Amino acid sequence: MSGVIVTDPPKAAAEDVEALAAFGVATVGEAMGRTGLLGPDIRPNQQGVRVAGTAVTVLGWPGDNLMIHAAVEQCGEGDLLVVTTTSPSTDGMFGELFATALQRRGVRGLVINAGIRDTQELREMGFAAWSRAVSAQGTVKATGGSVNVPVAIDGQVIRPGDVILADDDGVVVVPRERARATAERSRAREEKEAAARAAFLDGQLGLDRYGLRERLKELGVEYRTYEEYAGEGA
């Protein structure tokens, strides 16, 4: 497998990345019309951590972490490393030593469509990671690949410089051109949810706030007392 290492790709503006970091993955995914979400199998190694950064992407060979080494050189302050392989892999391609090098360069975390190891050490050093697997199985450094090219994970295309937001709920990718608009829509959604939260604390029901009683009626859902229901032979 031949490859290419692309240097200095365009990136989302730092202020837009920081604006998105104020919101959860679920909020941002909803603000983009329920798009951009990576699948539920990409899970956090830690809890209670949210990070946002600009993607540095890696396409490598399964069981081979050579291109992660190459990608470290391309990473800088505010980036987030995104790794996938040409075919499915669960090998532990990333661990404490990689995290040490990336943390030194100001990288905010890792999303990998494969395995990680040294998970306790990663938590202790505060390096956030989201992975498809945890595995002690090691890798080789034998096959070429690419850095900073578009990659796909769970049907979502991630380009270098796109915004990656990750938290306990999962991972979402925001195209760099849409970062500012998505942050604004996310803010509007949070304001709407704050109003709903206040209403629910005051005792209002979602059935009434969202006009769902009429929806139930349209769908033919009826209310019955227990006696009525039992008398119908249910």
The computed structural class is: alpha/beta
Residue share in helices?
Answer: 25-40%
Give the helix tally. Answer: 9
Q: Say how many strands there are.
A: 11
Biggest beta-sheet profile: 9 strands, mixed
Distance between the termini: 64 Å
Sum up the overall morphology in one term. elongated
Beta-strand fraction estimate: 15-25%
| Poorly predicted parts | none
From the alpha-carbon coordinates, what is the Rg to the nearest angstrom?
Answer: 22 Å
Q: What's the rounded overall pLDDT mean?
A: 97
What is the oligomer described by this structure? single chain
Order of helices and strands: HHEEHEEHEHEEEEEEHHHH
Outline the structure in words.
It is a single chain. The chain is an alpha/beta fold and 234 residues long. Helices cover 33% and strands 23% of the residues. The strands form two sheets. Strands 1, 2, 3, 4, 5, 6, 7, 10 and 11 form a nine-stranded mixed sheet that branches. Strands 8-9 form a two-stranded antiparallel sheet. Helix 1 packs parallel to helix 6 (179-201) and helix 2 crosses helix 6. The longest helix is centred in the last third of the chain and has 23 residues, at 179-201. The termini are far apart.
Write the layout of secondary structure elements.
Layout: H1 14-20, H2 25-31, E1 43-44, E2 51-60, H3 66-72, E3 79-85, E4 92-94, H4 96-104, E5 110-116, H5 119-125, E6 129-134, E7 146-147, E8 151-153, E9 156-158, E10 163-167, E11 170-174, H6 179-201, H7 206-209, H8 212-218, H9 226-231
Parallel strand pairs: 2-3, 3-5, 4-5, 5-6
Antiparallel strand pairs: 1-6, 2-7, 2-10, 8-9, 10-11
